[in-house]
């Protein structure tokens, strides 16, 4: 009802052409859309309650990776659905697994790859695993062995 048929862009750099101003604004708008999607649909805010810098950094990286996977899926399939619709579709399809279970899956895959590609013996693999786990931060060691953390 009160919508205007034009949009004004104000730019302090008078050397830029109109096309360049619009191109820069378009990039800025894409960034705004990215952060809105990350906040509202991909749980950038509210999912991680840690005070650890490393945990927060990891959470942001995971959220951004979720976004990249959705965008890649959308582009590869030339999907006409919005990112929000695609996100809710994928959430319905995914099984919710715990962090410790996810970490265990990654560790199993790493061990299998080491054994397959580097042809490590069982003894070497056990030694590698022990050394690797010893180098992990305590919260990750506890996540790999949640029962040992309680004891």
From TrEMBL:
Pfam families in alphabetical order: DDE_Tnp_1 (PF01609)
Domain of life assignment: Bacteria
MF term (GO), any: DNA binding
An example Gene Ontology biological process: DNA transposition
Residues annotated as domain Transposase IS4-like: 12-69
Annotated protein name in UniProt: Transposase
């Amino acid at each position: 009802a009160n919508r205007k048929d034009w949009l004004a862009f104000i730019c302090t750099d008078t050397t830029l052409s109109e096309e360049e101003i619009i191109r820069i604004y378009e990039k800025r708008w894409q960034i705004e859309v990215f952060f809105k999607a990350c906040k509202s649909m991909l749980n950038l805010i509210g999912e991680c309650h840690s005070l650890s810098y490393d945990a927060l950094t990891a959470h942001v990286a995971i959220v951004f990776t979720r976004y990249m996977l959705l965008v890649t899926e959308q582009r590869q399939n030339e999907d006409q659905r919005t990112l929000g619709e695609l996100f809710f579709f994928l959430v319905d399809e995914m099984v919710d697994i715990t962090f410790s279970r996810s970490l265990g899956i990654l560790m199993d895959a790493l061990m299998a790859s080491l054994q397959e590609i580097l042809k490590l013996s069982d003894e070497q693999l056990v030694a590698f695993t022990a050394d690797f786990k010893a180098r992990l931060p305590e919260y990750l060691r506890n996540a790999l062995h949640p029962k040992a953390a309680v004891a």
